[in-house]
Design a protein that fits this description.
The protein is built from eleven helices and 19 strands. By secondary structure, it is α+β, with helices and mostly antiparallel strands. Among the domains are: about 70 residues, no CATH class; about 120 residues, 2-Layer Sandwich (Alpha-Beta Plaits), CATH 3.30.70. The strands form six sheets. A five-stranded antiparallel beta sheet has the order 1-17-3-13-14, with no helix packed on it.
Length: about 450
């Protein structure tokens, strides 16, 4: 006798029984999932570790540069007149700067002409524009209006930097304006003509004016004019880098300003503080990363090697051999680094070359040693990548084991359902037989009872 629904014939909760049995059978699968979760957590922890080590490595970038310890700072008393900046070649000093004239890009304006007036038309007619060492020749063998000449000058193949503008005045006539792409006399607009054309054809004249709004008297006045501590300086640009070594003067307006150059120890302090901060961030993550599955032995090994670089003395690089001499010490309670900014500043002011040598020496400096250690951990295919690769392999193996176990569990569940289905059918059959026998015995009992009466 077939039973269409498990348990219907016998009253057994076949589905519930099989479900409970399968819960026991699935324990190995749950353990696999837990193991996989632990490995995934470890992979994530190693990723965080590599990120923290990479951040520490990045913090060494400024420490490796000798310029970090030779930085200077320049300031001007009147920013509206003069803005300044300095580099490592500048020395601490002061200057008095008087700006008499700013450099200008040369401007030439033609005479006024009707918009329909044309120029050229002769076989050899041409106009050549020159600025510095670059020239551009405009073929005027076919006559052009000022508007057409403007468009031709502003074409992409004009490499002189000279641009053309067109101004229409109250008279309705047009003026062609040529402007150099650079300031100063050396890059002024120079014109030459061919064929029947000549200087009188366009009537160009200089449009540049000085601070007094008067036309400049000569093209040489296109250059900036200033004095530095009484020394006359003339340059074609308003950004001047060749007057005082390491000092850039950006002229803003005529007037006077005092310039001061001083050592800028803040750059080096910021670089050292950046390293200290990155190290302390890494140090604070060690216990968390270990708790999340990263190898405790690896953590101890990294810490030990870092301490080795931090505490080992360096020789032959100057007046300083230990980080502690530059204000970087280890807190006895937390194991983290701390910086005495005053101590570092004093060292930078008294002996910047020795501080630079300690940190940035290309062969044996602190930054090079620390970077070499960190590179072994963070480089592609390095220690951490190898560990993560092994962990990913375990994830793959666990996944394959899980798939195999899931297939086996499906077979077990089907077997349980089949077995309990057969039991259900058997018990249903036995129940039917029992009911039949009971009915027959009742009938026999009734028959005997009637015969006795």
């Amino acid at each position: 006798m077939a039973i269409s629904s498990p348990g219907l014939g016998s009253g057994l909760d076949v589905t519930g029984i099989v479900s409970q049995l399968m819960a026991v059978e699935r324990q190995p699968l749950l353990r696999l999932g837990q193991k996989e979760a632990r490995v995934q957590a470890a992979i994530s922890a190693y990723g965080s570790l590599k990120g923290a080590l990479s951040t520490l490595q990045s913090s060494l970038s400024s420490l490796k540069q000798g310029a970090t310890y030779q930085a200077t700072n320049a300031s001007a008393s009147d920013q509206d007149v003069l803005k300044v900046s300095s580099n490592t070649e500048a020395v601490a000093s002061s200057y008095s700067v008087t700006i008499n004239r700013l450099a200008q890009p040369h401007k030439l304006g033609s005479a006024e002409f009707d918009a329909t007036a044309t120029f050229g038309g002769g076989v050899d007619d041409k106009l050549t524009l020159t600025a510095g060492e670059e020239s551009f020749t405009l073929d005027l063998s076919a006559a052009m209006t000022l508007g057409e000449i403007q468009q031709a000058i502003n074409a992409d193949d004009n490499g002189t930097g000279i641009t053309a503008g067109l101004i229409t005045g109250d008279s309705g006539h047009q003026t062609l304006v040529l402007t150099s792409g650079k300031s100063g006399n050396d890059d002024r607009v120079q014109l030459s003509f061919g064929g029947a054309l000549g200087p009188d054809t366009f009537g160009f004249s200089m449009l540049n004016r000085g601070a007094d709004d008067q036309l400049l008297a000569a093209e040489s006045e296109l250059d900036a004019s200033l004095s530095v501590d009484g020394v006359t300086v003339t340059r074609g640009s308003n950004s001047i880098t060749d007057v005082v070594d390491g000092l850039t003067l950006n002229l803003q307006a005529t007037g006077h300003a005092s310039v001061s150059i001083s050592k800028n120890t803040a750059v080096a302090r910021s670089a050292v503080q950046g390293f200290v901060n990155a190290y302390n961030t890494l140090k604070g993550q060690f216990s968390t990363l270990t708790a999340n599955g990263a190898s405790s032995s690896l953590m101890r090994g990294i810490e030990s090697q870092l301490r080795g670089v931090l505490n080992n003395g360096l020789s032959g690089l100057g007046s300083y051999a230990y980080l502690s001499e530059l204000g970087v010490t280890t807190n006895a309670d937390t194991g983290k680094l701390q910086l005495d900014s005053g101590m570092l500043t004093s060292a930078l002011e008294e002996n910047p070359n020795s501080v630079s040598g300690f940190f940035s020496d290309e062969a044996d400096g602190f930054a090079v040693r620390m970077e070499g250690l960190l590179e072994g951990f963070v480089r592609s295919g390095g220690t951490i990548d190898s560990i993560v690769g092994g962990a990913n392999s375990r994830i793959g193996s666990l996944g394959r084991n899980r798939e195999s176990l899931e297939r086996r569990l499906e077979g077990i569940e089907q077997r349980y359902l089949k077995q309990f289905g057969a039991l259900d059918t058997l018990m249903a059959s036995m129940s039917t037989t029992s009911e039949y026998l009971t009915s027959q015995l009742d009938m026999l009992s009734n028959l005997v009872s009637r015969n006795n009466n």
